[in-house]
Amino acid sequence: MTETVNSQPVPAQTRSTADGPVRRHRAGRLPGRQDWSSWPHYRAAEAGFRGYWYPVCFSSQVGERPRAVTLLGERLFVIRDRGRIYGMKDRCPHRGVPLSLGDKQFPGTVSCVYHGWTFDLETGELKAAITDGPLSPICGKVTQPTYDVEERLGLVWVYVGDGEEPHPIDEQLPEELVGNPAVVGQRIQARTGNWRFACENGYDEGHAKYLHRTALWRLFKPMPVWNTTKIVKRGRWIYRVQREQHWEADFPGLGRWSGTAWYKARPPKKVENIGNTASHRAVNPTIAAQEFPGFASVSMPGVLRIAYPTFIHYEFYVPVDAGNHLYVGMMAAFEKGVRTLPFYAKYLGAVRWLFHGQFSGQDKWMVEVTDAPPEKLYRPDDSLLQWRKLAEDTTEERLERLRAQGIEPADATAD
């Protein structure tokens, strides 16, 4: 007995019983993409894209002792001196001991715990080798690599580039967070799994309707069974624009599947693009002023934005290395003064553990177990394809720009 798979005959294993032959094993039919060679820069960005600002920790977590950080596979540390935060490579060039094990013996410097090599935090210059005396001849001959660091939104951001002058961080933040008063609730969690899987999960069109149907955050909300959408590019963002929402569907030969239930709110009668389902709440003026084409959008180097009527949810997928990332979840309400108090109560009382906890924990689980490529994508995965194209095109533009400046970037695709 044989079968055909992709027009090729494949033997099927059988065994005999009193009732006749019984199939034991049948070869699968697994067409699809075997690798990501269509997007060489994206494929090479296993440990992240260079040339961007990344949030690495809360500002409150950085004091006058070094705090070790791994970002894009690079080990560095951040430290505060007289109110300002600095970043430096976390390896003493003398014997390779982590500088984050050291401390500040003099203002504006950090000293290695091993032999007291002391580096200027601003310039990285070796200012003293304490155990070789004040006139050590090694001084002036060693300069430690440093990193540009900024503080925004209660977070410490580090720029990893190829020696170019970093762009202003405000050019990379979501536009509505620059210049508008906002109150934010945040969570940072170290997670297993590649950052690209986390970003693709966040922008994925289909999973929320099925995976998150058991999340407490969605318990009383109707969810579409399936959507039709289009991807719209505006500036540096691409948006998922909902065109149709189907709340129930009959699947031939199987039965009916519904995203509604007697205990859930009634589904909206028209398609909305602020929130993934319509809401009776008035849209906050700051959010309305953005005129978002769709409620879900993504930008480089891996920033997700989900616009709801009264708040916006952001996720920053920060590459630690090829197998680990930081999940930085942020919820922002554009209020000030006493109007921020209800947000604090709601966030700390419910949203932090419902949304940034159990709901996001389902995504964490999926990212940990994702294993792609190979992959066979389906119609809703146009969102993933468009994200990969955005990453590819944006990276190509950056590399061309650096080479025009005489800078040869560390482009893994050239290996």
Summarize it:
The protein starts with a strand and ends in an 11-residue tail after the last helix. The radius of gyration is 26 Å and the shape is globular. The protein has 415 residues and is α+β, with helices and mostly antiparallel strands.
Describe the structure.
This protein has 415 residues and is of the alpha+beta class. Helix content is 18%, strand content 33%. The strands form six sheets. It has a seven-stranded antiparallel sheet. The chain has a six-stranded antiparallel sheet with strand order 5-13-12-8-7-6, with no helix packed on it. The N terminus is likely disordered.
Largest sheet: 7 strands, antiparallel
Mean pLDDT: 90
Total of DSSP H or I helical runs spanning 4+ residues: 6
Rg result: 26 Å
Secondary-structure class? alpha+beta
Number of strands: 22
Order of helices and strands: EEEEHEEEEEEEEEEHHEEEEHEEEEHH
Q: Gap between N and C termini, in Å?
A: 47 Å
- Helical residue percent band: 10-25%
Shape: globular
Unreliable segments of 5+ consecutive residues: 1-10
Q: Could you tell me the strand content as a percent range?
A: 25-35%
Neighbour order of strands in the largest sheet: 14-22-21-20-19-16-15
